[in-house]
Amino acid sequence: MRVLVTGAGGQVGREVLAALAGRDVVAADHQSLDVTDRDAVLGAMTTLAPDAVVHTAAWTAVDDCEADPDRAFAVNALGTRHVADGARRVGAHVLYVSTDYVFDGTKPAPYTEWDEPNPQSVYGHSKLAGERELGPEATVVRASWICGRYGTNMAKTILRLAGEHDTLTFVDDQRGHPTFADDLAGMLVRLLVDRRPGVYHVTNQGAVSWFEFARAVLEAAGLDPERVQPITTADLQPPRPAPRPANSVLDNAALRLAGLPLLPDFREPLARLVAELHA
Ligand SMILES: NC(=O)c1ccc[n+]([C@@H]2O[C@H](COP(=O)([O-])OP(=O)(O)OC[C@H]3O[C@@H](n4cnc5c(N)ncnc54)[C@H](OP(=O)(O)O)[C@@H]3O)[C@@H](O)[C@H]2O)c1
Asked: What are the angstrom distances between the C-alpha of 66 and each of 71, 119, 124, 133, 142?
């Protein structure tokens, strides 16, 4: 089985490569394959003839997307159209990584795969548009709050800020499931190998607010969690351009109902990450 990984230089892409170690893999980073370039994508598909594509490439700068919707849709929606078109031509299965930002966050309970999306940000709209470029045979995995050893992410940012400031403030009115890229990548490969169609929510377990997550990060690093204080989203100065869902908690219902194992509580991979960063 030959697998093409788009966005192979990103935090999830790099972990997918690690999870696919030992298999026939083609790693396509932004420089080697720009998904907005239709000819390049179709050319790569026909030349490489992959059996499957893990499509992680995306413009993920959520706030910047607000100011440049054309770029967001060019990469996240049209780019996914190109990947879907190319994959169809060579019979490759596509697994697309999507986001909790497809929801508006107003539901008073965790979101299942069968809840109606209603994105509030340009990024969320463009990622949902990407989902809709794929046929029913594709696998769509929605993840949330991704952290890991590669790239910049909130776990690393919290550790950095803890080294620079005595007191940290994080919002206590946005909740989600922190998800660690290595755990996520393992499940992406499993769903890909099984060629399971449809939407799956795949996150680590343990719903927290950002405030609670920041405290957990300090605790994992052996620091005093009381240094983190709660604020509300309305207190954030300056306000962020893109609205975030207040409730980002994704119920991994499709995995659960299919009898597949859920990823562990986020504190497990968090401890692993902190140990690795301090090694
Ligand atoms: N991060 C999160 O919290 C989160 C949550 C839910 C879902 N997701 C989804 O998970 C996937 C992976 O995200 P991530 O966290 O790994 O983000 P990331 O680190 O930003 O990785 C995305 C990669 O896509 C590349 N890329 C951007 N534009 C491209 C283009 N036109 N053609 C080809 N590659 C392009 C980027 O390269 P450059 O950096 O060189 O531009 C980057 O390496 C994305 O689909 C994202 O929407 C992320």
From this structure: 10, 13, 10, 21, 21
* Residue at 100: amino acid letter: D
Residue 279, pLDDT > 80, answer no
Q: Which of 54, 56, 111, 131 to mutate to test the pocket of ligand 1 (most atoms within 8 A of CB)?
A: 56
**SS3 at position 171:** strand
Q: Which amino acid is at 262?
A: L
pTM to 2 decimals?
Answer: 0.98
Task: Compute the distance between CA of residue 54 and CA of residue 83 in angstroms, rounded to an integer.
Answer: 10
Here the tokens at position 117 are 């999306």
Q: Can you give the pLDDT at residue 235?
A: 94
Rounded-to-integer distance, Cα 245 and Cα 106, Å: 7
- CA-closest residue to ligand 1 atom 11: 56
Residue type, 275: A
123 is catalytic: yes
Instruction: Identify any residues that bridge with 229 across adjacent strands, giving them in sequence order.
Output: 169
Which of 96, 123, 150, 200 is labelled catalytic?
A: 123
Query: For tokens 């409730």, what's the residue?
Result: 247
Rounded to 5 degrees, what angle do the CA atoms 177, 178, 180 make?
Answer: 130
CA-CA distance, 206 to 178, in Å (whole number)? Answer: 8
Indicate if ligand 1 lies below 6 Å from the C-beta of 36: yes
**Which of 60, 101, 157, 199 most suits a substitution to test ligand 1, by most atoms within 8 Å of the C-beta?**
60
